[in-house]
Amino acid sequence: MRSRDEHGSSAVEYGLLIAGIAAVIATVVFLLGSTVRDTLFDPGCDDLAGHMATSGGGPSSCQE
Questions:
Q1: I need a labelling partner for 51 at 20 to 30 A (CA). Which of 1, 3, 25, 34 fits?
Q2: Which residues 6+ apart lie within 8 Å of 61 measured at CB?
């Protein structure tokens, strides 16, 4: 009877590793997504909307 060589990883193990990493990324994005959006993107969007409104070229807020 031949013994199996069990060195190295199989495709199933790589798939489980990728699924675990994807779950961690999705959890972090879900938990921190609104904080990052409010901190980084909303001030810039409001600033840009203010510049566009004063030049008459667009909406006065990011929600429009």
A1: 34
A2: 46, 49
